[in-house]
Specification:
single chain, Rossmann fold, 2 domains, 7-stranded mixed sheet, 3-stranded parallel sheet, globular, binds beta-D-glucopyranose
């Protein structure tokens, strides 16, 4: 420790001698503004398993680079301890700002604190970081996501035995999406039209887990009327379980993300609804926010969201419910998924005109 302090003092002395006491040897014209250090953004993601996150990463990096910043990207593979260590590393590297998709919205509060100790601001991307002095939050309207999911299902089957396959309990979005779905389901549960037979969370939003959860129910009860699944990954697990009981394509299933697999299942009649969240909008906006934060400029927000400790300045984007009927004018029109791939298993004569 003492040796460290000594080295520090000596180095400071060396730096001071070169910068102050000896004549400058560089050729910078005194009238020119000193070149600005390029901005470095640390981008910490919870995992890359779900299709959307790779896209979020690529779009974010593209926009950040267009704005003259560089990005150090890390992914924690669904482990909050790994995410914290990786964030500590970003802090040590001296990044100008940290953008996080938190695996655990409670535990990530420690990252905010450590970043702040080092004078680095933190932006929560898509998932809120709870009970912390988080600087900014950018996401979609996740309650509306849940409403579209349940409404899409209820539009097809409005009574009977319903299963709710939720998201990860470490992710605040799982609660917001559930809140939205229950805005639609609860009145029908109260009136006795809907019998909620399964209501589960799912660590890590895993397809395999959703499959296991629904299969366990079906093994015992053999039948079901509807599945409200919290995202396209859990929807996929649900459809696989339904298939084993001859129920795929018969029981409505929801999801979100407009992933290629889900869009294909929708046009093939195996999934009922997904929710399209324009990822370019969130990635571009987040990159702009990060650069503004790093430069100390004003950051555009459109509301505040309370995270249990403070009102976090936030930017929430709108979402679109997608069924077979509006696939063409939403996901396809925006170029989010290609027509040829979405309709690849639909006979050409049955495809909508391009
Ligand atoms: C996101 C979803 C995603 C899920 C699983 C949620 O926080 O909002 O878009 O499907 O995480 O990764």
């Amino acid at each position: 420790m003492k040796k460290g302090v000594l080295i520090l003092i000596l180095s400071l002395f060396v730096v001071m001698s070169f910068s102050g006491c000896t004549p400058s040897t560089d050729n910078t014209n005194e009238n020119e503004a000193p070149a600005e250090d390029p901005i470095v953004i640390g981008f910490s993601m919870a995992d890359l398993r779900v299709e959307r996150w790779q896209r979020d990463r690529d779009l974010f990096m593209e926009k950040a680079e267009e704005l003259g910043a560089s990005v150090v990207f890390v992914s924690a593979d669904l482990d909050s301890d790994v995410q914290e260590t990786q964030a500590e590393n970003l802090i040590l590297q001296g990044v100008d700002v940290i953008v996080i998709v938190a695996h655990d919205g409670e535990k990530a509060a420690a990252i905010v604190e450590k970043a702040h100790d080092a004078g680095i601001k933190v932006i929560a991307y898509d998932r809120l970081i709870k009970n912390s002095d988080l600087d900014y939050y950018i996401s979609f309207d996740n309650v509306k996501v849940g409403e579209y999911e349940a409404q899409g299902v209820v539009d097809v089957v409005s009574s009977g035995d319903f299963a709710y396959l939720g998201g990860s309990p470490t992710d605040n979005n799982a609660f917001l999406v559930k809140e939205g779905s229950f805005n639609v389901l609860q009145p029908k549960i109260d009136s006795g039209d809907i019998n909620l037979v399964l209501d589960v969370f799912n660590d890590g939003w895993k397809s395999e887990e959703a499959y296991r959860q629904l299969k366990a129910y079906l093994d015992e009860h053999k039948t079901l009327d509807a599945v409200v699944a919290a995202n396209d990954g859990t929807a996929l697990g649900a459809v696989q379980a339904l298939k084993e009981f001859g129920l795929d394509g018969k029981v409505p299933v929801s999801g979100q993300d407009a992933s290629l697999g889900a869009c294909q299942m929708i046009v093939e009649g195996k999934q009922t609804v997904t929710v399209y969240k324009p990822l370019k909008s969130i990635a571009d906006k987040a990159a702009e926010m990060a650069v503004a934060v790093a430069k100390g400029e004003a950051v555009e927000t459109n509301q505040v969201v309370n995270n249990g400790k403070i009102d976090v300045p936030s930017y929430l984007l709108d979402v679109v419910g997608v069924t077979k009927d509006n696939m063409m004018e939403t996901v396809i029109k925006d170029g989010f998924q290609p027509y040829e791939e979405v309709y690849q298993n639909v006979p050409e004569a049955e495809r909508p005109p391009k």
